[in-house]
Amino acid sequence: MDEGSTDTPQGVGHGGGREASHPLANHVPVLLKEAIDSLNVRRGGTYIDATVGLGGHSYEIAKRLGAPGHLIGLDKDPAALERAADRLRPAGSGEADWPKIELRHASFASLAEARGLKADGILADIGVSSLQLSDAARGFSFQADGPLDMRMDPQSERTAEQVVNHLDERELADVIYEFGEERRSRRIARAIVRSRPIRSTAHLAEVISAAARPMNSGQNKYERRIHPATRTFQALRIFVNRELDDLKALLEAAPRILKPGGRVVVISFHSLEDRIVKDAFREGSIKDKYFRVLTKKPVTASLEEQDRNPRARSAKMRAAERV
Ligand SMILES: C[S@@+](CC[C@H](N)C(=O)[O-])C[C@H]1O[C@@H](n2cnc3c(N)ncnc32)[C@H](O)[C@@H]1O
Questions:
Q1: How many angstroms is it from 74 CA to the middle of ligand 1?
Q2: Distance CA 33, CA 6 (A)
Q3: How far apart are alpha carbons 166 and 18 in whole angstroms?
Q4: Separation of alpha carbons 189 and 186, rounded Å
Q5: At residue 268, what are phi and psi to the nearest 5 degrees?
Q6: Strands 316-322 and 291-293
Q7: I need a labelling partner for 284 at 20 to 30 A (CA). Which of 60, 132, 144, 148 fits?
Q8: pTM here?
Q9: What is the CB-side half-sphere exposure of residue 157 using CA atoms within 13 A?
Q10: Left, alpha or beta for 139 (phi > 0: left; psi -120 to 50: alpha)?
C-alpha cells in the first residue's frame, strides 16, 4: 500500500559497469526519471536527498552534480545510510567526476532547525524502504513474523509493541482510524486490548484478521483484496515514526532552505501524505506566493513501471519551485 522502492531482477541500469556486480544493483527507485527531471539538477549545485534510503535517487543526482556539486543525504535509519555510503562512494561509483557527498543520520524534520543551509533542490521519497520491509526483525511486515518494532530509527524511543500494549482502547482506535483510515478501528482496537500482551507481527496480524472477518461481506473489491491488517500496520508505522509531523516540518522548512528557482519534489505512498503535500504547495503558491506548483495533478508511475514494480502503483509525486 505504501511501500517505497523495491529490489527487482529487472532493475533499470544506472549506467557504468559496476552496476551489474553491485549487491544493490537491482534496487529500483520509484519514479526515478520523473523525480530527477522535476528536480532539474544543475551541475555544481547543492541538493538534499531527505530520504537517501539505499541511495538510488541520490546516485542519479550525484551523477548530474559532478565534482563541483554537493549532495547532502539524510536518513533516520543507520542501516540504510551504511548501504547508501557504499553505493555512493566515489570509488564504488566508478565515476571520476563525483560531488562531495555528506550522509547524515537525521530526520528530515531537523531541517526546520538548519541555519544558513541553502539548496537548489530537495527530494523526499517517503515511506519504508525495501531494506526495512524485507527484514522481519524490523517488524514492519505482517507477512513475516518478527518483533513488533517498526522504528525507522532504532534509537528512537517508541516501538509498535509499546503502542499496541500500552495505549488505552480509545487512543488505539483513534490511531488506527486517523493514520490507517480503517473504518473497523474500534472493533480492531477492542480485539487488540483483549489479546494483550501482543509481542509479534504474526500475532497482531492474526488478532486483526479475526476481528475484521465479520465485516468482510460489506467491503468493496479493494478492501477485500488487501490483507485485513494492512491499514492497522500502516497506522502503527506512521504513529511510531511520527511520519506526518515530520513531513509537515519538512514542507515548512523547504521555502527557507531553497534558493530562488530551487525545487522540492516529494514522492508519497498514501493519501494522507499526498494531501499534506498538496495543501502545503497550494498554500505556498496562493497565500505567501513562495511556491510555483509544477504538478497540477500528482505524477504517477507508468503502466510499465507499475508492472515491473507493484509498489510503484500507489506512488504519487508532486513538485514545486521556489519563486
Ligand atoms: C522509500 S525509501 C527511500 C529510497 C531512496 N529514494 C532510494 O532510491 O533508495 C524511504 C527512506 O526514508 C527514510 N525516512 C523516512 N522518514 C524519514 C524522516 N523523517 N527523516 C529521514 N529519513 C526518513 C526511511 O528510513 C527510508 O530509508
A1: 8
A2: 15
A3: 48
A4: 5
A5: -125, 170
A6: antiparallel
A7: 60
A8: 0.91
A9: 0
A10: left
CA–centroid distance for 160 within its chain: 18
pLDDT band at 9 (very low <50, low <70, confident <90, very high): very low
Q: Are strands 100-105 and 70-75 parallel, antiparallel or unpaired?
A: parallel
Look at residues 34, 72, 77 and name the one whose alpha carbon lies nearest to residue 54: 77
Residue ID of nearest Cα to ligand 1 atom 24: 128
Nearest CA to ligand 1 atom 18: 107
Q: Give the position, in ligand 1's atom list, of the atom nearest the Cα of 131.
A: 27
Ligand 1: centre distance to CA 122 (Å): 13
Dist CA 53 CA 199 (whole Å): 27
DSSP string, 229-290: THHHHHHHHHHHTTHHHHHHHHHHHHHHHEEEEEEEEEEESSHHHHHHHHHHHHHHHHTS--
**pLDDT tens per residue across span 240-293:** 999 999 999 999 999 999 999 999 999 999 999 999 999 999 999 997 799 999
